[in-house]
Design a protein that fits this description.
Helices cover 33% and strands 30% of the residues. It contains three helices and five strands, in the order αααβββββ. β2 and β3 form a beta hairpin. The protein is elongated, with a radius of gyration of 28 Å.
Length: 152
């Protein structure tokens, strides 16, 4: 019985010993610093990437709605682009420079090149700044309009 108690105390003290490797790990964790990422993309390239992603998402939703009539999606009340089944976005070009409509809204006329057609739309970029847990984030919302009401 004494041996069992000695073995238990020995194992308990061995398990609770201050190990040098554990203290080294603690020091490494304490020295961690938050490093902000530096982006290699220009603002023009970043907007181009976001707009391309949103347009492809729009095209995918339209294709899904056409191929599956039971699946309803709100892809704007007006028809932005007339698409064929399975249209893929090849690339976009900005026709005009970014026009500042207000402090938080930028507007640009965009040429959209699909597999079998080319179209022109108006892209609105709405920017807002939000604070979450004392950290400031910049958000961007992309909206598209047709150029039917555009005055030249």
């Amino acid at each position: 019985m004494k041996r069992l108690i000695y073995i238990t105390v020995f194992l308990f003290s061995l398990g609770c010993a201050n190990n040098a490797s554990k203290s080294m790990e603690m020091d490494a964790v304490e020295s961690f610093e938050k490093v902000e990422e530096q982006s290699e993309l220009s603002e023009h390239d970043a907007y181009s990437l976001i707009i391309s992603q949103k347009l492809q998402e729009y095209l995918d939703k339209k294709t899904l709605a056409k191929t599956n009539p039971d699946f309803t999606v709100d892809t704007n009340k007006n028809e932005l682009l007339s698409i064929e089944k399975g249209s893929q976005l090849k690339h976009i070009n900005f026709i005009t420079p970014f026009e500042t409509v207000s402090d938080s809204v930028k507007k640009v006329i965009t040429r959209v090149v699909l597999e079998h057609q080319t179209d022109t739309i108006i892209t609105l970029i709405k920017t807002s700044i939000i604070t979450i847990d004392n950290e400031v984030f910049k958000t961007h919302k992309i909206e598209f309009e047709t150029t039917k009401g555009l005055k030249n």
